[in-house]
Amino acid sequence: MNYKLVGNRVNPSFSNTFASAPHVVSFKPVNNCDMNASFFDKHSIRLIQAPMAGSQNHLLAAAVFFAGGLGSMPAAMLTTEQLQNELSAFKDATAAKRGQANNRAIQWGEFLPVNVNFFCHTPPTQQIEKEAAWRQQLTPLYQAHGIDPQSVGSGLGRAPFSEESLKLMGQFKPAVVSFHFGLPKAEWVQQLKSWGLQIWSSATTVQEAQWLEQQGVDAVIAQGLEAGGHRGMFLSEDLSTQMGCLALLPQIIKAVKLPVIAAGGISTAAAVSAAKALGANAVQVGTAFLTSHEATTSALHRQALMSDAAMHTALTNLFSGRPARGIVNKFMRDFGPLNPEAPAFPLATAAVAPLRAAAEAKGQSDYSPLWSGQNASDCQALPAADIAHKLLQGWA
What we know:
Elements: E1 4-6, E2 9-11, H1 33-42, E3 47-49, H2 58-66, E4 72-74, H3 80-95, E5 112-119, H4 128-144, H5 163-172, E6 174-180, H6 186-194, E7 198-203, H7 206-214, E8 219-223, E9 229-230, H8 245-255, E10 260-263, H9 269-277, E11 282-285, H10 299-305, E12 313-316, E13 324-327, H11 330-335, H12 348-361, H13 384-392
Parallel strand pairs: 3-11, 4-5, 5-6, 6-7, 7-8, 8-10, 10-11
Antiparallel strand pairs: 1-2, 9-13, 12-13
């Protein structure tokens, strides 16, 4: 049975479709916790900037890296050519500083000092009738914004890890390749590991963390329910299984013999210290960087993050077809944040795209995915380096 969270209650009414069951990987883990932890110690990795598709490029990743953290590059919404260009730009940015004394880029050798993140969902089959029915529900909105309903197209919007992705990783050799929604094909994971790349993936439950350990990942990202953006859940669609970071983190640490990265609701040095005290090897932070100078976050999104509106977030499937946390806006209020009529991930994106464009052109964020974690109260318009330095004080 599938579930929907409403306030503090759990209702059996959410029936949208996630990705199919994860690929079964046949090889066994080859590293133990100490060996993997040495990667974090060797490179002093305590802060990871969360990959944020649509709100960043290589500039943010490079800024966080030079501030002492590990930057991330989101690949889900980029073509292979676009990702290649971004990785080339990041490589040039770090190479430009390799000649400086004591530069962090030198110690990474042949590996590019960045985390490249991919979705690894299984694209859904066509849902012609469901997509048509959903567009019919949105027709009054299209008409109100001067949009011809017949002009609204269809499409996936987000691409999973592929053969082309694998080849690109072999070309650039990023130090870390991370995944959301489980793992891709076994042979692809094995190839990445054979190149010496770290494999990380998100876990939203203890069971997911244990599954990832069995498949040979090098580290687990414990994604608490507070986190902004898409839930990384992949073994179940049951939202009642999701828990906050402070509850999830120690349970995963106890259950697996791998380094664990804490994620969700971490936006201050005090929160970093709390994660460290609970045994995390590092923290992953996203929302706090959305308002940094280097982020590409839109003006409307920035405004929402630094307003009282950010105090109210919810999980919603309206924008993509899969639960993701964002600031509640008109679209979420009018249609309910979790609507079983929305097409499966990532098909739902196409239907709302023209509404988003029309509203944003008028200076409105009524139909924009305002991704945010539950604690945006510390979001400030600062250089990413300043944000990173403040956060890293919590690990000292």
